[in-house]
Amino acid sequence: MPLQTVEPQRLYRQIADQLRSLVAAGEFEVGHRLPAERDLAVQLGVSRPSVREALIALEVEGVIEVRTGSGIYVRAVSADAGKGRAGHLADTPHADDAAPLDWGPLEVIHARGLIEPDTAALAAQRATRADVMAIAASLRHMQQQARRGEVPREGDEAFHLAIARASGNGVLLDTLQRYWHARHGPLFERLGDYFEGPESWQIAVAEHEAVLAAIKARDPRQARQAMQRHMRLALRRYSANWR
Predict the structure, then answer these.
(1) What are the distances in angstroms from CA 39 to CA 27, 42, 64, 83, 210?
(2) Residue-range domain boundaries for the chain
(3) What span, in angstroms and rounded, lies between the C-alpha atoms of 130 and 118?
(4) In the beta sheet, which residues pair with residue 33?
(5) Is 225 helix (H, G, I), strand (E, B) or coil?
(6) Among candidate residues 211, 158, 209, the one with its CA nearest the CA of residue 183
(7) Which among 69, 66, 70, 75 has a CA at the least distance from the CA of 31?
(8) For site-directed labelling of 214, which of 92, 136, 181, 230 has its Cα 20 to 30 A away?
(9) How many CB atoms lie within 10 A of CB 71?
């Protein structure tokens, strides 16, 4: 058999593989509860966000079950359980060079937090009247969805990409479009099931309003700070204790 190219695995996938192997070996029995997220992080020597991403991946695969208010329980013992459901998405971008759908959600939010504040600052400097109208229209869509009790993901994506377009930098726009493609992956969707809700989205809408106000005011410094605050609080929301 010819040698195959060796590709580095994302950390959360390494953690998920190790936990899956322990389940298959009987270290964690079916129906029993896994150690708490913080305890797993200490034992594995990794961050809690990486453990959370691994647990979400295992739940998507059907290996574990998250029972909010109770804990995380083992559902399957096969070493191959679920690999086809999440594994095939690992590094399979679409023909348009879209992002892999299994990018770690919390890593994506962290990466966005590094890029989007400066993108917002550029938008405050360069946005045309049409750009500002597009950003405002996306925000209104978010507000309407939130008032109806819906998760305003469409408006949210449109808002952030409208800011990227207003920055006048095509590379930033392409990069953020890849991040948002990852937002539609199964890991991100499942994470949102636990940590998104009407209350959190009302707060997020207010954060978006502050960003738009700074862009309208042509204030790059305030736009950068408002976006930094939004991304920091978004990461905190996804890192909160399980409901």
Answers:
(1) 16, 5, 17, 25, 38
(2) 11-87, 105-238
(3) 20
(4) 73
(5) helix
(6) 158
(7) 75
(8) 181
(9) 16
CATH number belonging to the domain at 11-87, selected among 1.25.40.20, 3.60.40.10, 1.10.645.10, 1.10.10.10: 1.10.10.10
Over residues 72-95, mean pLDDT: 56
Q: How far apart are CA 120 and CA 118, in angstroms?
A: 5
Cα–Cα distance, 157 to 188 (Å, whole number) = 14
Q: Residue 80 and residue 144: Cα distance in Å, rounded?
A: 44
Q: Estimate to the nearest angstrom the gap between the alpha carbon of 62 and the chain centroid.
A: 20
The structural architecture, per CATH, of the domain 105-238 is Up-down Bundle (1.20)
Task: Indicate the SS3 state at residue 96.
Answer: coil
SS3 71: strand
Residue 195 has pLDDT above 90, yes or no: no
Q: Is the pLDDT of residue 9 over 80?
A: no
d(CA 65, CA 56) in angstroms, rounded, equals 9
Q: pTM (2 decimals)?
A: 0.82
Amino acid at 212: L
